[in-house]
Design a protein that fits this description.
Helix 3 crosses helix 4, helix 3 packs across helix 6 and helix 10 packs across helix 12. The protein is of the alpha+beta class. Strands 1-2-4-3 form a four-stranded antiparallel β-sheet. The protein has a four-stranded antiparallel β-sheet with strand order 5-6-8-7. The protein folds into two domains: 192 residues, Endonuclease I-creI; 94 residues, no CATH class. A hairpin with a 5-residue loop joins strand 3 and strand 4. Involved in cell division and chromosome segregation. It comes from Harryflintia acetispora. One of its GO terms (biological process) is regulation of sporulation.
């Protein structure tokens, strides 16, 4: 089961959240479903629990005289698709008549009022169940709503703006998409949907990713420093070997001779450790100065050849 499907299942089973807001949730599912007009009222979903909740809420709220049909199909890529339809024209009119006043309420909602905010959370829940998908946060932060018709497109924008959810939009295969990329915004949406456990999971994944990235940056920095140290040491050893061949290390002044021998014996030792290994110990800059002297001496010998 995908992360998105698992989340929708969690929401559908959260009765303490759904049922106090069932009119708003059902309104959101209808408005943002595949079709919501007199000719066709239907929902397309890959989630069995969403299909059951859609039909169940309509039955509970509206006096349906015939039936609501759930048809199961297999898509070209062998996924299950549940198509839920309100069958008769009379029932579709009854559904539209029941929910028509809610659309005006939706437009007039003031998110600063607690009751209105709760209503908007219910509509958002219905929208998410009907037309949204969310990526596994282990892979990416991406939440998208698919607007299947013009009214859904317009209403999604109004809904997200009222809830202060920043979004972008694009088009895919002729359908309008409103999407959210911010992990913080996605966490907020999940909290509004009553999916507290999943919101905490996203937060934990984000913390883990941040820590992993920090460790990687530190490791990369340390690796770069090691590479730099090894490269510099290899160049120094080459210079010292040239001096050894040309004039011999014993001909060097005591201070340079000690540093030259120590570098030959410890090719991968950083300057700070070389400094402490001398007798008496020197500062890092002192060791670096002596090594530069050795390199300059080697260059002079090289030029005389």
């Amino acid at each position: 089961m995908s992360f998105s499907s698992s989340l929708k299942k969690e929401i559908c089973q959260n009765r303490p959240f759904i049922y106090p807001k069932k009119r708003a949730v059902c309104f959101g599912m209808l408005l943002f479903g595949r079709n919501f007009e007199e000719g066709t009222i239907c929902l397309h979903t890959e989630n069995r629990q969403v299909a059951k909740l859609y039909s169940s809420l309509i039955y509970q709220l509206v006096e349906i005289r015939t039936s609501i049909t759930v048809t199961e199909q297999i898509t070209r890529d062998e996924r299950k698709l549940f198509i839920v339809t309100v069958d008769s024209l009379e029932d579709r009119r009854a559904v539209q008549q029941y929910f028509a006043p809610l659309y005006q309420k939706f437009l007039e909602c003031d998110p600063g009022q607690e009751r209105d905010l709760e209503f908007l959370h219910g509509v958002l829940c219905g929208a998410f169940l009907s037309c949204a998908n969310i990526s596994d946060p282990q892979k990416s932060y991406h939440l998208e709503f698919v607007a299947h018709h013009a009214l859904a497109d317009q209403s999604l924008g109004v809904l997200l703006q009222k809830l202060s959810i920043r979004y972008n939009h694009t088009t895919r295969k002729g359908a309008r998409l409103l999407y959210v990329k911010s992990s913080e915004a996605i966490e907020d949406v999940l909290t509004m949907l009553g999916a507290g456990n999943t919101a905490l999971e996203v937060m934990n994944v984000k913390i883990y990713k941040d820590m992993r990235n920090k460790v990687n940056r530190i490791t990369n920095c340390e690796t770069a420093n090691i590479d730099k140290t090894v490269t510099a040491a290899a160049a120094q050893i080459g210079k010292i070997r040239l001096i050894e061949r040309q004039v011999g290390i014993e001909s060097l002044p005591p201070g340079l001779r000690e540093v030259a021998r120590l570098r030959l014996q410890n090719p991968d030792m950083p300057l700070s450790e070389l400094a402490q290994a001398l007798h008496p110990p020197l500062s890092r800059s002192g060791v670096n100065y002596r090594l530069r002297q050795l390199c300059a001496m080697a260059d002079e010998l090289q030029n005389k050849r």
